[in-house]
Amino acid sequence: MNTRLSIILLSILLATTSGCSHHHRHAQEMDARLESAEDNAATARLRADEAMLKAEQAQRAADEANERARRMVEKATGK
pTM (2 decimals)? Predict the structure, then answer.
């Protein structure tokens, strides 16, 4: 009877442990995916910030070019 009880308890222990192992592995996979998504989001924010800086530089250059053109037209028309 003791042997049978030991086998049953061992079986229950193994079944419980394998379930925990699977859960732990799943949690690790989810953590890795979350970390990857956070890294991707940070990279996207960085690229967006860089694009915004370039757009602002382009806008300033366009504003300066428009101002020069306005002065040239003003000078050419004598106003």
Answer: 0.57
